[in-house]
Amino acid sequence: MFTLVLVAKAEWTPVFNGQDLTEWSGDPRLWRVENGVIIGETDTETRKTEAPSFLIWKGGKPEDFELKFQARITGSNNSGVQYRSCVIDAVSWKVGGYQLDINPQPISQGMLYESQGRGVICENGKQVKFRDAPEITNVLKTNQVDLSNWNAYRIVAKGRQLHHFINDQLVVDVRDESLKNFSSRGVIALQLNHGAATRVEFKDLLIEQNEKTKTQESQTVAWLWSNQNPQKDEKVFFRREIQLPSNILNAIITVACDDEQRLFLNGKDIGKSTDWANPPSYDVTANLKPGGRNVIALECTNRHASAGMALRLSITLKEGERLNIISDGNWKCSSEASEGWNGLDFQEGASWQKAFIISQMGDKPWGNLMPQ
Prior knowledge:
This protein is mainly β. It folds into two domains: 210 residues, Exo-inulinase, domain 1 (Jelly Rolls), CATH 2.60.120; 144 residues, Galactose-binding domain-like (Jelly Rolls, Sandwich), CATH 2.60.120.260. It is built from no helices and 29 strands.
């Protein structure tokens, strides 16, 4: 089984009701609504904050979309709007991911910044392709504005292409080709920065997104092991057989294991990792068998207390549809493996049992290592 995502008709819809923050989650000391405007405000006393605080939209995790809004800032500080981001800590309203930066520095106005990640990806007036590092591919016309006035902003996210507009002028054009850090979906959040006292205002927030029809299973990646009480130096082998369509364009697989893992695809050794906090991603397009049976296999080892394996195979079809094969309840595991265990011809015996779901991606102790 796999997850199939189909694109449906898009419409502009409000992400703010103009009256209150029932559709949002944030620090009530810092965020409020006045006259149809969302206001975030800090000072040096009761509204003081030691770290950036976010107002998080509870309406979902948009993937391909356009978001438009108006914003203005009073004071010398900066703000921003997060998208395709992940909630790192819901209690303290901490968010990481892509951000359209609302910054008084001319070069930073509207720039693409990845908070809790790569930092500056693309500055104002640039076209960038980012794989392992930013590569400037073109220069755009810059657009400098007075942040104390109302300015219109627009974010367009379609696949790996990310565009930022200020007052209808394109100021940032990014193609994110990073195998490890690219985010295809995630939360939207408004930023109120720490430091100097500031007031940021947002209004007329509208989103146009491709509604999704999802079939067969959830896209939430699970952490798997053979049991709920992992042992030190315990080794577990995992397998998952899948049938794939013939029209595959590309495929990227990301895998994390606390503590060690070696990945195989159709019997071929793809790679090994001993750093669960930085899960590797591999381009496995050439290793798949389009239109036929495939098997994903892993040899995993626990060195300490907690243990778990998490995986996502993201496949793009030639028509633009996407398939996600994830670690879930459909995997088999065993504490021992005989010859050929990682290949297509292997027959799973009685020792191969259904894998145990330890937790979901985003849960403690690992957090969200694979943002959706």
